[in-house]
Amino acid sequence: MTRIFSGIQPSGELHVGNYLGAVKNWVALQQGAESLFCIVDYHAITAPYEPMLLRSRRRDLAFGLLAAGIDPARATLFVQSDVPEHTELAWIFNTVTPLGELERQVQFKEKAQRQDSVLAGLLNYPVLQAADILLYRADTVPVGEDQVQHLELSRVIARRWNAQFAPDADFFPEPQPLLTPTRRIMGLDGQAKMSKSLGNTIGLLESPDEIWAKLRPAVTDPKRIRRTDPGTPEVCNIYHLHRAFSEPATVQHVAVQCSTAGWGCIDCKKVLAESIETELVPIRGRAAQLMAEPSRVDDARAAGAAKARVLAKETMRGVRDRMGFD
Ligand code: AMP
Ligand code: TRP
User: Fold this and answer.
1) Is 196 a catalytic residue?
2) What pLDDT shows up at residue 268?
């Protein structure tokens, strides 16, 4: 049976971008495969951070993932730092990882460029990611396009370790990426990918009023100035959001209304707000239930860690044994 593993950093709020780009896919996948979803807090500390904020974000993310539909009865939802074997295996993998492979990682190069002093943790970030996945001997990793290179490195590490320490058996499977079907969601500014750090998000747990307050002034087709000007859907970010949220028939209708100036941008945004509502109502419902019973979040975290540790320990027994540790 396939075993799925994926991770998400507790580095900001859960917004409709990372929901559509990752988490919604996890919710669907947990139905058909053994799934582990991990809040990767040791990855989050490779960028400057506030300890108190890390604590609240970890919890908020667990809350958000449960509200989004991750079901602890089906999937193992857990926190990376609750399972110390992640860092143990990461250290071991550092000893079989070629430095050149790490220096070649595009994400590392991009992040390093923006910093005066580059820390080793940033360079070794993908080694920890390989440890996350291989600790559970997961074969399938649902991720976005930007993680494909990290997954390639995970396969290099699995191969190297297997060749050196388990030549007779493929102890670690080579994990394959499962690309998320949704393309990246642009932020409300229409300029860049939706991202907490850019302040252009729609939060997954925001109220309809809060969402409308953001949608109403959001950027549309810049060439459509008067209500009577026909618009060009393809260049309008609101149209792209329709494609992410609305039924195909609605999307088609929107395109016609926009390009014939049948609707103004506000009309179009109202329909988008409704489509977003349809997606978010069940999530908000689950969030309300969790608010009423907050211990369920902590219980899910503890149960997830317990399940993950059983698997992690089993893998580490095999690793330690083959590497000459008692
Ligand atoms: P992040 O919240 O940036 O740690 O990302 C968590 C996951 O959500 C990653 O798999 C990202 O590729 C995905 N993701 C984040 N932002 C977006 C976005 N605006 N559109 C699509 N996917 C996203
Ligand atoms: N690097 C991933 C991201 O930024 C997060 C991550 C950490 C991850 N460990 C993982 C994703 C293991 C998949 C599998 O989105």
Assistant:
1) yes
2) 97
Q: Which two tokens stand for residue 62?
A: 């667990």
Number of domains in the chain: 2
Question: Phi and psi of 210, rounded to 5°?
Answer: -65, -40
58 alpha carbon – ligand 1 mean position (Å) = 16
Which pLDDT score, from 0 to 100, does residue 180 have?
A: 86
Task: Say what the pTM is.
Answer: 0.95
**Which CATH number do you get for residue 39?**
3.40.50.620
For 56, other C-beta atoms within 10 Å of its C-beta total 11
Ligand 2 atom with minimal separation from the 9 CA: 5
Same domain, 168 and 145: yes
Give distance in angstroms: CA of 21 to centre of ligand 1: 6
Burial of residue 193, with CB atoms counted within 10 A of its CB: 0-12 exposed, 13-18 middle, 19 or more buried: middle
CB atoms within 10 A of CB 166: 15
